[in-house]
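ingest -> fold -> write
write: protein_1
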Amino acid sequence: MQIKTLMIKDPITILESASVKDALDRMTSHSIRHLPVTDHKKELIGFVTLTDLKQAFIPSMVSDMSLKDIMIKNPIVLYPDADIETAAKIIYKHKVGGIPVVENKKLVGIITVTDMLEAFISMMGLLTNSSRIDVVLGDSPKAFNDVSRIIQDNAGEIISVGMEPLETDENICHFRLKRCEIEPIVTALTESGYEATDYY
């Protein structure tokens, strides 16, 4: 999935000549926590967060401080065709809540942690009417395909699959299915030598 399908297009922006109060007012009125700073040609020149602005508000009242003084210059950016995995890694590594999206130096969007979470929830089918079954795969290379076939042979339609980090020999796999009768699947798995550790 590419960033351009998730990003907020044509996000709210502000000019670097604006005051800290102007930026805070704009964030408050639009209920946002990240604000790209652009020039008159919509080229990205900086980035400010709500935390930055709150910390600078009092000092800005007794000085000539503007956004230019506190904005993040040369912020981390993404391109519209970057994939969601790349964005997730950057957000996690740099501990940021939002990243501007640029194309040919022009700001075209912004991607936030909230957008990423919504995408994850959608991809995992967490808000759909669903069933779930966790199965111990062990160390057999054919176990995943075998368990998937058993689920499908017993009227289970797989929506998404998640794997726990390989820190133990159990190798537990989480299958989310469209709502179905889960007991026949558990029985079939047990009869084939697989353990369902949790299901509903």
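write: protein_2
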Amino acid sequence: MKKIIFSTLFTLLLFSGYAQPNPPRRPPPPPPPREDQEMDERRGPRMRGEDRQEHKERIELFKVQFITEKLALTTPEAEAFWPVYEEYKKVVKDIVKTKSEDEILFQEAMLNARKKYKTDLKPVLKSDERVNDALKIEREFLNKIRFEMNRRRGFKD
């Protein structure tokens, strides 16, 4: 008799563990976004003209600060450096507008612009190492901006 009662109690205890209430169900996932809606969400909010101009100005200020720090420009060097840099940027912008159809002409014009920029910077920065750093530094800045944008959008490395 004891065996029957003991086995019945054991069986009841065993099945009571399986009789726990189910956790609440999650709501179904939202429907997939439309293709154009998905692109807008990835790009972030669209900027109006004023916002876009303000954004560009802020990036330019960061760029000036970044280049000045990386090159460790003194005040007289900075006063001589920035006009040369702005002239170089105008030449590059003009090359992109006019020579972008022919790849060979484009690359050749860019190389000539960089060579001229290097010779113009030599008297300002006074050493080949600093001139080479000046040539590399904008790419470094663009990579940093790209990394930050991807980080803010939620992309991994």
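write: annotation protein_2
The first helix runs from residue 2 to 17.
The chain has a mean pLDDT of 82.
pipeline exit 0
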